[in-house]
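Q: Sequence in, structure out?
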Amino acid sequence: MSVKYYTHFIAQSEGAVEYNEYRGVVELLDRSSKVAGDREIARMLARSFDLEETDIQVLQWDHLH
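A: Exactly. Output:
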C-alpha cells in the first residue's frame, strides 16, 4: 500500500551556497500509516536525496486522499 502527499520543501547540503526547491506529489510505498509530522517527512525525503534530515526544510505538506 502507498500513501501520497503534496510536498513543498527546500533541500540544501550543509555549507552549500545554493539550494534546490521542490514541490509536487510524493508517493511513499509500503506505508500502512500516515506521516506523523514535518520531521518524519523530512527524514524520508532526505533518504531519497541522499541528504541529512537537517538538510531538508519542509515548507508545506498535505496528505492526499
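The longest strand covers residues 2-11.
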